[in-house]
């Protein structure tokens, strides 16, 4: 350790050093994050674009650290993956999302969101326990499998094709739905739409962001038609304004999600906005 200290370059890029230190901090704090109860799920509405009614929610993890403040998922999910902490964290997310949906179904009845969308990381998909973790969470909370959507990315399923197909088929057998997240950003070819047992495409928000350009509009339109012919639902991500909403409605896109409708909010806040919508 002493030799290491002496070896350190005299000029150490400040930004890099801060970044490296921050990463180390995150890594250390992640180890017992679950026992400290610092993780929570926020929920972002997924809206039926035709009726503008709530259809489902996407669970998005939030880490409220007493000293570090809110640490965004983009900063710790990849670290958690490298340390294999993503397995217990991912299990927590699946269980907590199911608990919350079951609770809403019990208390809000038909006004509860129909579907809960949960992000799954590559390590989770490759882990042998994923299917039983999902099965147990559904059972424990008394949820029908069809209301749980697992979101996976193209590059994740292309990483170990055969194993992914087997796991995805096992999940399908349980009855859960599978969504391709960030569709259009991966390296995969469109053939993944035929080879994997998927139910929905989440159009990456880059498409929606550039939808003021003719070429993007053509591309979005073609993807919506393609998805429809394959029997897949399309969820447009990153809907931020009325122009984008109107365009997506024109193109026949079924579902959308984005700041225009709502930012991700706590379970409590989502519930309150549902109740306000009911006029209670
Ligand atoms: P994602 O799955 O693509 O989630 C959508 C991200 O876009 C969320 O960021 C959301 O807050 C943000 N977003 C939603 N609407 C808009 C919009 O209109 N405009 C813009 N600019 N952004 C919008 P968030 O919550 O920071 O999550 C970032 C990423 O972290 C997620 O991207 C997902 O890949 C990952 N993540 C979040 N929660 C989990 C989790 O529980 N497990 C795993 N494995 N990954 C997670
Ligand atoms: Ca997602
Ligand atoms: Ca996404
Ligand atoms: Ca993403």
Automatic annotation (TrEMBL):
Residue span, EAL domain: 23-278
Endpoints of the signal sequence: none
Protein name: EAL domain-containing protein
Coverage span on the entire protein: 286 to 565 of 572
